[in-house]
Design brief:
Rossmann fold; Immunoglobulin-like; alpha+beta; 9 helices; eight-stranded mixed sheet
């Protein structure tokens, strides 16, 4: 999720500390970055001065999925050299597409930003032996403490690096092979032998353990493969040297040449993410905390490093130790598409947006990206008709248009694009229904997410005096004894069972409905015993009620002449997807929502937005009939509440699961 506030940036002023040649403290352009509010966290370190320590300041930002209890890995997205590339690392953790990879593997997404001045030596950070490896590992400890995930310090690493970042990622494979699940090196690799033409670059040694780490060398064809006079033509000879050395010793290394690009990142993410996905799927242990699994080799495919066809390893006609290694058939087929024109096939639509909220003419929502193809744009519909494309036009000079745009080192631009839309042409006073769809970069559309319709009644229970105002209509009620109390939002009412407190609402034809949704926030003050939330049993039985009992949330539905079902319940063992069943604790808020769907002939019972139970029924229920009085804090059968009730709402529609989730979204 990207909060709306991320459309703004933080500007910090720092004391400037200097060494003879290198600025050590934060300064432009590194003082402009998005805020790091959970699920984002940040750790920043000032430059150090001792030999072997990192001489540049460094800013580490991490994203951690909210629903992950124990992290299994961390995806590291490492920028390249120079101010332009280094500053791009400030937004890497906010990339929705890379987050999709991290989320799938219950991992975090980390983006370092080394604050290298433009003219400074990049080797001072991109060689991890110069202090950046130590700073990186320190950040894992500190960010683990900040986020409540101390295991972050010990999880495996999946490394992606561009240019100098590729040099760094490759160096980390050579230094810490037991920690690296896989590494993607875009347009940059470490040296394995000294190069007299590059005396400032120190060579690494190649340990046997590094040969078991899957590595892919990825570069643009204009970097010396087919174009020999490009500024970056020296990239291919360096990649070729590393590939030959590693592969000749049986290392699991491949090559993928981007046919369209030079030193920019182009469309590489549409192959990099599936490749890393395959490696993580194969290597991460089933039990978190155990060592990485060996990479399987029995399903490998091979290809000429700069060729266009891959075949199963057993069918490769040439020397296998000179062939590019690919982990399996699926990756190999994606490789063949990528090296041809970068158009990697994707037939799966993106996930639907979530938590659509409408405030006046302002729409906001949340969205996860499509793992295969990311997010290109959103479509907003109003009252079933196309309204707008967000953004209206996408631009990306380095590849497919992306919703978040793209910088040179494969990260979103600043300021971050907010997930929001303003309907400037909404008719004043008219109620509209909005839908939002996601579109990925190959043009596939998600399912719709619809906004929550307006309720027919809404008692916020924050009134002064004895009237309970209906903020959605004219169904005002009378408060009998319940006193003001702090609510879930603002004020609410405290109901005391021994005192017989309740709110009464007169009959209305609006409530003579067979399909409806009732929702309320409840905060129990005593252990419940048929503690009524809402009912229509005053003046006659056989319609509707909902209440809380000792080990269950309980309801009854009837048609006005008989009970259809008096066990519309979910129990303590009905824990759904969040582990909470119907045995509610005191002194905490719960959102209880009953959906009575006459069309589907089922009741859907929700707690805190999570569906706990679905109960089929026969007959035609009725919320209320003439002669009855609706009551809040009492079912109408002498079943009074001991607790606080807030924001009671009724809809004439059967809300969908996503719409119920939207009720609890902040």
């Amino acid at each position: 999720m990207i909060p709306k506030t991320m459309a703004t940036v933080c500007r910090l002023t720092a004391l400037l500390l200097t060494l003879p040649t290198v600025a050590l403290a934060q300064q432009p352009p590194y003082d402009v970055f998005p805020p790091a509010d959970p699920p984002y966290y940040r750790a920043r370190y000032e430059a150090l001065t001792q030999p072997g320590e990192l001489v540049f300041s460094a800013n580490f930002t991490i994203w951690i999925p909210k629903d992950v209890k124990r992290l299994r890995c961390v995806i590291v997205h490492q920028h390249g050299c120079g101010e332009g590339s280094c500053k791009s690392g400030l937004t890497g953790a906010y990339d929705l597409h890379w987050q999709a990879l991290a989320r799938k593997h219950e991992g975090a997404l980390l983006s370092p930003a080394y604050e290298q001045p433009e003219k400074a030596d990049c080797q001072l950070w991109c060689d991890p032996r110069n202090g950046s490896a130590a700073a990186f590992q320190k950040s894992l400890v500190d960010l683990g403490a900040k986020s409540g995930h101390p295991e972050l310090a010990d999880v495996p690493w999946a490394l992606w690096g561009h240019s100098g970042g590729g040099h760094w990622a490759g160096g980390m494979v050579l230094l810490y092979p037991e920690r690296v699940a896989a590494a993607w090196l875009r347009s940059g690799v470490p040296l394995l032998k000294p190069d007299p033409a590059k005396p400032g670059i120190k060579a690494h040694t190649l340990p046997d353990a590094a040969l078991q780490v899957p590595v892919l060398c990825n570069l643009g064809t204009k970097e010396g493969v087919t174009v020999k006079d490009d500024r970056f033509a020296g990239v291919w000879p360096a990649n070729e040297a590393l590939f030959n050395e590693v592969r000749s010793r049986g290392g699991l290394v491949g090559v993928a040449v981007d046919p369209l690009s030079s030193h920019d990142c182009g469309n590489q993410r549409y192959f990099a993410i599936p490749w890393l996905d395959a490696c993580l799927s194969a290597r991460l242990p089933k039990v978190a905390g155990q060592p990485l699994l060996d990479m399987p080799t029995d399903c490998a495919w091979l290809a000429e490093p700069t060729g266009f066809e891959a075949v199963p390893a057993a069918k490769f006609a040439g020397d296998p130790l000179k062939a590019a290694w690919l982990p399996n058939e699926s990756v190999a087929r994606a490789w063949m598409e990528y090296v041809k024109d970068t158009a990697v096939t994707d037939t799966t639509p993106p996930p639907a947006p979530t938590n659509l909220r409408v405030a006046g003419n302002e729409l906001t929502w949340e969205s996860a990206a499509d793992l295969e193809s990311g997010l290109a744009r959103f479509i907003v519909e109003r009252d079933g008709q196309f309204l707008a494309s967000v953004p209206e036009k996408s631009s990306n000079p380095f590849g497919r248009p992306l919703f978040q745009n793209l910088q040179y080192s494969d990260t979103p631009t600043q300021p971050l694009v907010p997930l929001q839309f303003t309907d400037a042409h909404a008719e004043p006073g008219k109620k509209h229904t909005y839908c939002v769809l996601a579109v990925n970069t190959v043009g596939l559309k998600s399912d719709q997410i619809a906004s929550v319709p307006d309720p027919i009644a809404h008692w916020q229970l924050d009134d002064d005096g004895s009237e309970a105002r209906d903020s959605a209509g004219t169904h005002h009620g009378t408060i009998h004894g319940a006193v003001p109390h702090a609510g879930k939002s603002g004020k609410a009412r405290l109901f005391d069972r021994p005192q017989g407190n309740y709110v009464s609402i007169p009959h209305s034809p609006d409530f003579e409905i067979s399909t409806f949704t009732v929702s309320a926030w409840v905060w129990l003050t005593r252990e419940p015993t048929f503690s009524g939330i809402l009912g229509t049993r005053t003046g006659g039985e056989f319609n509707f009620d909902m209440k809380v009992n000792a080990d269950k949330v309980h309801g009854d539905i009837g048609d006005g002449t008989r009970w259809i079902d008096t066990k519309i319940n979910f129990y303590k063992d009905d824990v759904g997807s969040n582990g909470q069943g119907g045995d509610l604790a005191t002194q905490r808020w719960y959102l209880i929502t009953f959906v009575v769907d006459n069309e589907l002939k089922e009741c859907r019972l929700h707690l805190d937005g999570d569906r706990k139970k679905t109960i089929p029924f026969q007959g035609e229920p009725r919320l209320m009939r003439q002669g009855q009085t609706m009551t809040i804090g009492n079912t109408g059968a002498g079943e009074f509440m001991d607790g606080v009730i807030d924001d009671v709402q009724i809809w004439k529609q059967a809300l969908t699961d996503q719409q119920v989730v939207n009720l609890i979204a902040p």
